[in-house]
């Protein structure tokens, strides 16, 4: 199928120009959320859970942001630095996983933020700060999730449209030079030949 060929080809598909800004926005959100999630992990570790390898929703968001930085940052690197090494099937898998991870990350953070903030009520303290950090992760993570969906959809569309676009022939591209017509030569058009007179030997006396 043409769509399958477009998704398994090598090379950067013809993206719309504004997709670049979508990916830059995802990278910026990932950097911001990495800092917020790391701060939430430091607050969560006060209870001792992080010492046993459990960091909750904040640890999940740290993983998601790092994954997003590697995937979208590496994608831009290949797009501008080595487009001939851009394997679209690999990009499709990584972008799809990014969408799934963002969904899991912000949903988990939202549920934990609601639970923590409801438990502490109007009281402050580190527990409240932890819940607020998770709420920020949930809100900005949902925005990054929507942006990652847009990027994935237009990535697939770009690959499919390129594969199904009609190929122009060389003649349509003006690459075939017209050749001069060869006129047929008939016997009537041949130049008139001068008659050849045979030379007779001179008569001897």
UniProtKB/TrEMBL annotation:
Domain of life, source organism? Eukaryota
Keywords on this record?
Answer: Membrane, Transmembrane, Transmembrane helix
Residues spanning the membrane: 20-45, 51-73, 85-110, 130-160
Under which name does UniProt file this protein? MARVEL domain-containing protein
